[in-house]
TrEMBL record, chain A:
Keyword Membrane appears in the UniProt entry: no
UniProt entry tagged with the keyword Transmembrane helix: no
Signal peptide: none
Organism: Hymenobacter edaphi
Family annotation (Pfam families): ABC_tran
Domain of life: Bacteria
Family label: Belongs to the ABC transporter superfamily.
GO molecular function: ATP binding; ATP hydrolysis activity
Keywords on record: ATP-binding, Nucleotide-binding, Transport
Descriptive protein name: ABC transporter ATP-binding protein
Source taxonomy: Bacteria, Pseudomonadati, Bacteroidota, Cytophagia, Cytophagales
UniProt-listed SUPFAM superfamilies: P-loop containing nucleoside triphosphate hydrolases
UniProtKB/TrEMBL annotation, chain B:
Keywords of the record: Membrane, Transmembrane, Transmembrane helix
Top-rank taxon, per record: Bacteria
Name the UniProt record assigns to this protein: ABC transporter permease
Keyword Transmembrane belongs to the record: yes
Transmembrane segments: 32-53, 73-94, 121-148, 168-190, 197-216, 236-263
Organism: Hymenobacter edaphi
Amino acid sequence: MKTNSLLVETRALSFGFGPRPVLQQLDLQVPAGSIFGFLGPNGAGKSTTLRLLLGLLPAPAGTVHLFGHDLARHRRAVLGQVGALIEMPSLYDHLSGRENLEATRRLRGLPAGRTADVLATVGLSADAHRPAREYSLGMRQRLGLALALLPDPQLLILDEPTNGLDPTGIIEMRALLQTLQRQHGKTILLSSHLISEIERVATHVGVLQQGRLAFQGSVAELQRRQQGHAQVVIDTEDAARCQLLLPVDLGGAAVLGPGRLGLPYHSPEQMAYLAQQLVLAGQPVYALHCQQPSLEQAFLHLTEPALA
Amino acid sequence: METTLTFAQPGPLTQLRRCLAADVLKLKHTPALWLTLGSGALPVLLFGLIFFFKGQFLLKPGENPWPAYILQSWQTATGLLLPLFVVLLSSLVLHTENKAMAWKHLYAQPLSRAAVFGSKLLVLLGLNLLAQVAYAVLLVASGWLLGLLRPALHFADFAAPLGAVVPLLWHTFVATLGILALQYVAALWWRSFAAPVAVGMACTIAALTLMRWDYIDWVPYAAPLLSLKAVGKGLAVGWALSTSGLLALGWAAATLLLGYVLLGFRHEGAAR
């Protein structure tokens, strides 16, 4: 990654609550124009990192740079270009959806038309007059996103934005994030515990494990790194019989189902050889393919040692 | 991708104005606003009813009823009701942010901490003043009404002492500033409704109990009641602040300065 294309960059960022270290020497790099999926098990330090990026917590060691500028020195200037949704949306239940947005619009001194714009963007125009206390969890989340979008920021920092959304809401949120990135050039830093969600939208991924980055880079790069975890999947009639007939080649294979076997992938030649051996042994081969690990599997591989 | 960053930032006064505009909007439909309006009206209503039904026993025949009416009402209001009002008001105003877990949202905006601190303080001062002015206006108005409804009390025979009510209001308002500052900083620090209210109520009751103590002037929760020391014979009230009034101002200045510095160490670490 080129340093000048980074919108968010932390250098040796460390943080602890009392003697307990939460983040250790974190060098986070979020490229401009990316959707950066920030993954990690619960308690890994994702929310703490996002709070540090917004200046909500002081960084005792290391630095945070947003847009290439030191957050500690230019907090107000850089935050003018940032929209954030941290954990549960901050909503005033006694105010309507529109008034909630209006309060933040006034805080930022934005043009009056922005409120209607973002209400339309998140699909809440029809419910804007209702008090926020009447909103469903999904509507609250969308209003929280509208608050983040209000200043038309270059950088969006979203902490678990799909929390509480139903499947339709999740699909809409995903489409919205992709539109914001592709059509409006926004950079989105997104934390989530839903790996499948990150997999669908992220262009880049950072995996946090016990306060350290276990990986960061593009999704393709992560999958390349996980090549060693790719496996050959064989669909046949009887997995046990295949193992019995080909004990040398398939004896160590994992039985994934009554007619499905899986074993570590080595090369295309290995796949051709297995097909040949199965046919020679008189076994039907319905399918034979190399399965790349999903982001979920990659995540589990990266975090495995600590979980063990 | 090149990113451009405009470093043009709003000045401190613009930030304060923006915060204030947002804070005023947040007051809509809140108990703080109703408390403010109710606190001005309730003591007047109670005292008006007392004088309407029992005024003949509370006033000396033939004398101007205004000084007794104003002073007795003011004494009741400043001894207990006013300190409790300030205690409740400061907690209620800040509870709006606590309930919405909005501190993290507020401090992630491109605003200075001073603007957020100053704006909420101005809202509190404004509501406090509004309640006291409403009380004073309604008290005078209730006297006029008693003049119409109970001519035997002779309210209509004498002019309302407007010249005394305004400086009296000044003394009372200044006297509440020490409590307001202490409660404001406590509510900001604790970020809970109950804790600062409990402490404030305890301090108010303690102050009433210690009213005969030699150093009572130093107790800010006693200052509203002590502000009546400024009242001379025949409801003559000067503008010069009494010792307790000056000390209330001192408490306010010291608490706000120290509180602002201390609150700089309070961060948005947990879910707020």
